[in-house]
Amino acid sequence: MSIRAVFNAEPRFASIVEKLTSLATFDLFLMKDEKESGTLRQPLEEAGVPLEAVGATLEYQVMVLDPVAHREESGCAIRAVLKELKEVYGGEHPIRRARHQDAENSTGVVLQHANKAIKIMRGMVDATPEEVIPTKPVRKGVKGRTTKVTRVVGKGKAAAVPKTPKRPVPVDALTEAVASLKITSSPETIVLDDGEQFYRKLESLAHLLARSRQSAQPVQPKDSSPNPFQATVSASSSSKEIGGRQAPSRTWDAQIDGMQWRLADGLTSTLFALGKVHFIRGSVRASEFFIQKANELAASLNAPVLLSRALAREAEKEIAIGRLDSGYGLLVQAGYPWEQAPDVVGPDLVDLHRLQGDHNIRAEQIEEAKRVYGIANELLGQLEEHFTSTESLLTAISKRQSVATGEDVTTLPSTLVPGLLASVLRQHIWLLRTDVDNPLYEDLLNRLLTLPASPETKVEENLLFGKLTLEDVMDSLQADLFLSSLTESAIALPTGMSSGEGVALPTSTREILASLANAEKYFWAGLELSSSRGEVHQVRDAALSLTLIRAFQTSLGKGGKNGAVIAASLLDVSAAVTLRRELLECIDNKFRDANMPDDMAWPMMNANGSPLPPSAPGRKRLLFTEESEDDEPDDEGNLQAYWQSIKRRYRGESMDPAGLASPLVDQLPANWTVVNISVTDDKRTLFVSRQRARTEPLIFCLPLDRQGRREGEDEENHFSYEKALEEFNDIIRLSDESTKSAKDLADKQARVEWWAERTKLDLRLKELLENIEYCWLGAFKTIFSEPTGADPECLSALRSKFDKVFKRNGVVSREKKAQLRVRLDDALVECFSTLSPKCRDEEIEDLVYFFLDLFQLHGAPVALSDIDIDQVALDLQSTLEECNVALRSQQAPRLGDHHLFLVLDKHLQGLPWESIPALRGRSVSRIPSISFLLDRVEMVQHQNKISRSSHVRPPDRTVVDPTRTFYVLNPSGDLKTTQTTFEATFKTFESSGWRGITGRVPSEEEMLQGLQRSDLFLYFGHGGAQNYIRSHKIRNLPRCAATMLWGCSSGALHDMGDFDRIGNPNHYMLAGCPTLVANLWDVTDREIDRIAQSVLGKLGIDKAGLCKQKQGESRGDAGVSVVQALAESRE
């Protein structure tokens, strides 16, 4: 029976246990030897408390002492409690109890307790020393005594303290708050406001407690010795670095009845909880912050176990990012305290082994990982045995008590740390998947299935079983003579319709389809659970696996209804997981409730020193007080209504087939195309999807090595993802070095050599992008083509031309021609019809093999040995020429200013996709996901609704008033050429309404004003202005101007391993920025200046254009888009 169960069984004692424990623990610290007793056993027994409640109370006292168990002077106290426990339980009792408990209390209740404790403590700060001296209960064996005493460490004398007026002691409220600390997550999302407020309140309470203890410190006799129980971080120790950071100096005094230790426990628990939830959400920087705080606090407490736990969390973060060496070093440090106590076993030690196994897997040390996971399983088994034996004793005592009282006491089976156990089992099972005959494999599977059901364990279970089932499908496909080519072939969704309904599928195909259906169920269950509570990589793995399953099902003729729509939505879901979660928190921070008091504000006091209720702050404007005559009525109320509508939409999204079958793209303008590009975690398969409003999506599943295999190249010579990324990183590294060396060029010859090197790098990058398009996309690059506008009759004629090519070359045997044929989908016909007949021969062959695989998978017996591939390719090339002529002659009306949006997954965001040959010079921009694009469309609709102007903004763009521009030019003062290029021009624009800063560092408030009050924000300096404005300030802006950051790497997103990438663009997306122009890597200031001048010129931002704009002559005119101006300026 657990402590909680005993307390629930004896509610009349629960209210006093925590108070008495803290006071008795204070006595334990003052004991000289084990003969004295400061435990609660005898007073409770004399009061008639049942034996099981006495034992539970002593257990709680052990838990209070646990954080200081490492201290030598605490040994006497701990041994005394354990001695009592031996007598109560009749045997050994473990120091630690570890139980998995679901969250039972909301953070709202926790905050109420913390507020209560803070108010009480603030009332005590100004009290006299006598009022706050810690008191203790009557010593054992002394009855009827009413005088309260306190001990002064020194000669062991007790000083009597006069009775003082009753003042509330914050132990009750504080203990309730700490005990209730559970960071819960709503089913829709993970929002952390309450948890972070509680952490701030605990810190505030810690400072207040320290102040009260300083004022309450009793005066020691002159001959008194120093307090041996006071742990002070000395100047020398405080200067030590903890995980690369400076550890702050802090004093923790043991002579304060245990309250400060309990507060420290609450602080560390809160910090670890916040770090974990941010880790799960994917907010890696926020998680790092809280873990660093926990690390510093553990070091200041001189608590090795807590420090080990903090180091383990840091190691977990480093391993997840991919910094294996750093993670391994932290694991070594975290394991040191456990090496000093080899006989001690605890969940923290098991977790260290789990992390070591994860490190081994990433370092490709598979056998070592198996060994480490085996040790972790053994350790968990030992813990189970210890707790089982202990609880059997408690159960026996409870049964004896139940006989006397007539109550029925039953104990439900439970599992220690099931979440940790599930993680260990999942990884171990996955490593043993190739050895299914091993008895250990079956045993681990059974253990995983018997774990208590919780969202955490069910996510692990469903994703593991889904991956195992999909792995079996891949093995079955490879072993099937007919279907073995499926895993190596390009797949399209949708493909078309087979009219051979009467043809029965082979048995092997039916079995594979059944296995795919089972895997699909597991992944859907895992996605629904992980979408709000799971880690980022879990959401991504589930979504991409479901997309791959849909591709296989479609190829085998069982794509199902809305198969392409759901697959496209899954690809969109897999991108920007963290950003979607963080947006909900940012929306709440954009508009703080005016009636909500500031939790960090010091309360007002009345005449007798009692705290007054907090007063609500007055209503605040967005950030500024001055008004402008031409300000739109875009006030806080209207903006709040807009953001709340965004919040409702995000919360209303569901990750199930029904919810994903309703495409968001139908709400976008008709002249927009959204293309999503993702790569699987094994970096072998590329998914490319295209979505347009009110049009069925088109998706290609493309093996990256298909061209190399077809040409007979060795695997090591294939143009793989790793090779492309290695080449790109090397080009950027050399480019950065070249950029930095530009200022050191001494003579003309050096400049000539410098430009020659830059030219070589340009050619290398050009060749890399051509290989990406040719090797990875091939003939399927036509997915980027603009809409042709072809009518159904034209598409039917084009389809007939394709059919004739394959009939003429005998692709479909005559025996089956009457029974089976494949009708290509209209989207496929239109897509392939735009392929240039002048493309590479290998790209034509890529298309030929796609058609051959398509016919074969739909039951047509294709005899490759009898087919002349070269002849089919020539005929297909001639057909493409006819298609191009037919499409040009149709002269279909264009859909306005066509624009292409790229949604790139985290593995592909570093590459310059806008510059591949198929997209060069096109109007292309990036978005995190379709949801963020829809946010911008709703913003335009919102602006049209509240605008007083007669001009209605076009639905496909945000119109920027260039007279409302704020600029920051050369804030560091060292970009003299840039300042010379733009300063005079910008000064002349100030007469048209421009405002700005030149040659000096802006304040953060000036940056915020420029971003929020302007329509256009220009920055010319180093980086992306990170040195002048903090990221959370940008994120929490309710309104953000269109922004151009003309600085090196201002738009770079940094790779964070398992997490989504982080960087400057994300902050502006969360602020609602309509357009962001930034650089992916470092370039010289002259190159940036040249492109910036060209872009501004094409946008009409010159003196004449500004004058016309101010006079209203061109207001509402769509003009040239920023994206198009940038595309043309790059050429």
Structural write-up:
Helix content is 53%, strand content 7%. The protein has 41 helices and 21 strands. A six-stranded mixed sheet has the order 7-11-10-9-13-14. A five-stranded parallel sheet has the order 16-15-17-18-21, sandwiched between helices. The chain has a two-stranded antiparallel ribbon with strand order 1-2.
What is the makeup of the main sheet? 6 strands, mixed
State the low-pLDDT regions, or none: 92-111, 120-194, 215-257, 408-413, 619-633, 816-820
Taking all Cα atoms into account, the compactness measure Rg is 35 Å
The secondary-structure class comes to alpha/beta
Query: Assembly type of the shown chains?
Result: single chain
The count of DSSP E runs of length 2 or more, i.e. the number of strands, is 21
Mean pLDDT: 76
What portion of residues is helical? 40-55%
* Largest sheet: spatial strand order: 7-11-10-9-13-14
* Overall body shape: globular
Per DSSP, what share of the residues sits in E-state strands of 2 or more residues?
Answer: 5-15%
Gap from first CA to last CA = 74 Å
Q: Work out the helix count.
A: 41
